[in-house]
Amino acid sequence: MPEQKLKVLIVSQYFWPENMRINDLVEGLIQRGHDVTVLTGLPNYPEGRVFEDYRRSPEQYVEYRGAKVVRVPLIPRGKRSITLILNYLSFFVSGAVLGSWKLRGEEFDAVFVYAVSPIMSAIPALVIGKFKRAPVFIWVLDLWPETLKAVGVLSNARLLALVGKGVSWIYNRADYLLLQSKAFSSSVKKYCTRELPSERLVYFPSWAEDGFSSLPTEGSPLIAHDLHSFTILFAGNLGEAQDFPAILDVAEASRGKLAIRWVIVGDGRMSEWLEQQIAERGLDNVFLLGRHPLDTMPALFATADALLVSLKTNEVFEKTIPGKVQAYLASGKPILGMIDGEAARVIEEAGAGLACSSGDRQAFASIVEQMARMTTLQREAMGASGKRYYEEHFSKAKLFSSLESLFRQATLRGEG
């Protein structure tokens, strides 16, 4: 006898046509035969203004792969701190008030929150979950208020304590807290003043987007494969947290020793600085390709001999597994990590590559040289080991099945 289909509400400030992992989850639930509704805002990430295609034809964005998409107005992110704050505030107010109104008469078996920053985006889900008597699942992808302090957004102890009280209010009203990293557990528990049974605090990591598990053989039109160089590829956000000064120092020092080519793909706050530094230092072994669509990434990965992940160290970053790590593992390419904590643990436990401490230029130069001198077979063995680890721990099919089981358990218990 087939299991009854579920009615799931996804609450996410960000959603298609914005490029977010939550799009995958919605599609996956639809493919499994469930009814899915998405409550979201107007697409404006990362540019900071509402997408022109959406402004021109909003009626084209009311359904995604069979899921109903309900949008509420918000203030676009813009380019300034004040507009970003207003963007966050406008979504949770609009989502809680207008979202509840737009979803009147609807019933749901589960409410799922894609809780990237800010955590306040969970508030509409808690309000709607209360009205609908449906259990609320919050996927905790960032640690608040620790992240605010770690990235220098907020340092005042009283304000941080106030944000902490808000986080506690949210966590205590959720039925399930899903953690993207095992190391999140102690931080999250600190804000749960009511007893949360262990089965309600669930490890639920990210997965790799489609395409990375089977890299194309023809390579990328953006940069050719070079048989005479060891190519290291970095893909993702180009921010201060990624410690590009250390990466460029090692790239500069490696010139003349080994034929190493550094390829950097993405954009962010450090893009202009990187461009200037590459020119000033005459780093002809570093290629800055800019930002490209997600579907071009597998071909770029195919041109690389190793994939690079780096993060400066602090208490939050040590507990986080950057989303790119799953894509790197799935690709079957060996990984170079200048990173601490959970991400380093995963790389080493998987046998997927070599890792050193954040910011340690000497150790980083050493592991780069070590991998560059390996045989192709040795590197392929590392990549294969990482891919096996990915299939065991991060495969999309397994993760979606476990989430589906959680939804069913909550429904059978009559929670909400």
Task: Describe the overall structure.
The protein is α/β, with parallel strands linked by helices and 416 residues long. It folds into 2 domains: 7-207 and 395-413, Rossmann fold (3-Layer(aba) Sandwich); 230-393, 3-Layer(aba) Sandwich (Rossmann fold), CATH 3.40.50.2000. The protein contains 15 helices and 14 strands. It has helices at residues 21-31, 52-56, 81-102, 123-132, 146-150, 157-173, 185-190, 244-254, 271-281, 297-302, 323-331, 341-350, 361-372, 376-393, 396-413, and strands at residues 7-11, 35-40, 63-64, 67-71, 110-115, 136-140, 176-179, 201-203, 230-235, 260-265, 286-290, 306-310, 335-338, 353-356. The strands form 2 sheets. Strands 3-4-2-1-5-6-7-8 form an 8-stranded mixed β-sheet, with helices on both faces. A hairpin with a 2-residue loop joins strand 3 and strand 4. The longest helix has 22 residues, at 81-102. The protein is globular, with a radius of gyration of 22 Å.
How much strand? 15-25%
The separation of the N and C termini measures 26 Å
Write the CATH homologous superfamily of the largest domain: Glycogen Phosphorylase B
What's the alpha carbon Rg, rounded to whole Å?
22 Å
Q: Which geometry do the CA atoms define?
A: globular
**Any idea of the CATH topology of the largest domain?**
Rossmann fold
CATH architecture of the largest domain: 3-Layer(aba) Sandwich
| Poorly predicted runs | none
